Amino acid sequence: MAEGNKPVREVRAATVAIALLLLCFLAFAGVFTYFVAAAVVQTGQRLEERAESSARVVATNAGWMAQVAEQTLRRMDAVLGPDLDINRDTLQAAVRGLPNEVNVYIIERTGHTIFSTVPNTEQVDVSDREYFKAAQAGLNFYTSGLLISRLTGEQVFVFSRRVQRQGEFAGAVMVSFDGSVMEEFFQALDFDLGSTVSLVRSDGALMARYPAPDGPVDLSITR
């Protein structure tokens, strides 16, 4: 009888061994899945925290650029005086010390440039540009989206201020920033390849991005 039951005991032992191996495998798979899921969650949290921190840094720098632009525009308006005095020495002194990425323009009421920190720009007509038309229409301060400079061919974004004398439109002053300023932000934040850093206007118009896009982009549909 003992010998007759031996194959049965061997089958049962093999079945138990297989079951134990299966249970060990399932336990291992469960533990592995748990740690993978936890790692994914932790990685996502770190990436989210880094993105939020980077966004705050970019927002701080964007606020600084807006302040530089507004202060420069106010100063240029004041330097022009009541009669729009175009004294180049005085104007050059007023813009001395601005960052290399910043340029200043003074536009008379018909849209022609009468002063700029960019060489050889006198008489350039910007009457069709939104930043001039906004000032002409009565807006005191305007921020453009991404533009291609007609002078340098580079990507820029512009802040403009309406110039008014004796209650009448007399022209505008503009401050432009090179889009390349975003590369400095990108390098400072030590982003990985494939990442981007952008400035976007409140209506969704892209102002600047690194790596640079091919041209103006409307991001309003992605918000």
Automatic annotation (TrEMBL):
Gene3D superfamilies in UniProt: PAS domain
Lineage: superkingdom: Bacteria
GO terms for cellular component: plasma membrane
Subcellular localization, as worded in the UniProt entry: Cell membrane
Keyword flag Cell membrane: yes
Domain Cache: 79-204
Membrane topology category: Multi-pass membrane protein
Keywords associated with the record: Cell membrane, Membrane, Transmembrane, Transmembrane helix
TM annotation in the entry: 16-41
Presence of keyword Acetylation: no
Matches recorded under Pfam families: dCache_1
Name this protein carries in UniProt: Cache domain-containing protein
Species whose genome carries this gene: Devosia aurantiaca
